[in-house]
Amino acid sequence: MHTYSFEKLEVWQLSRAFRKDIYLLTTKFPKEETFGLISQIKRAVSSIGACLAEGSGKITSKDKAHYTNMAYTTTLETLNHLIAALDLDYITEEDYLKSRSKIENITTKLSGLRKAQLT
């Protein structure tokens, strides 16, 4: 079976694991948030890896960097939703800090990837 270039990226692998973490975390949210915050955070966290996958198919480095930047912005969107979940007491401070640490790792790697793509 062929392995695509995005699957080899450490940051994509981290985003894949983080997506699973967030999906499991949202099971703690109230059911009335199913079409609200749960839906928003799941879309945002799923977009991180999706942007990396889509960008890997682009021809120019500039185009690839654009999609890496989009992955970065959706990572920040995910953080914003986690802050909302913390403020609403849907998640614990411990869950928030664990997720935030993973976000910081992902954004650092995305910044490095984007820089490499533009040089």
UniProtKB/TrEMBL annotation:
Pfam families documented for this protein: 23S_rRNA_IVP
Origin: domain of life: Bacteria
InterPro entries, A to Z: 23S_rRNA-intervening_sequence, 23S_rRNA_IVS_sf
Entry-linked NCBIfam families: four helix bundle protein
The protein's name: Four helix bundle protein
Organism: Pedobacter chinensis
Species classification: Bacteria, Pseudomonadati, Bacteroidota, Sphingobacteriia, Sphingobacteriales
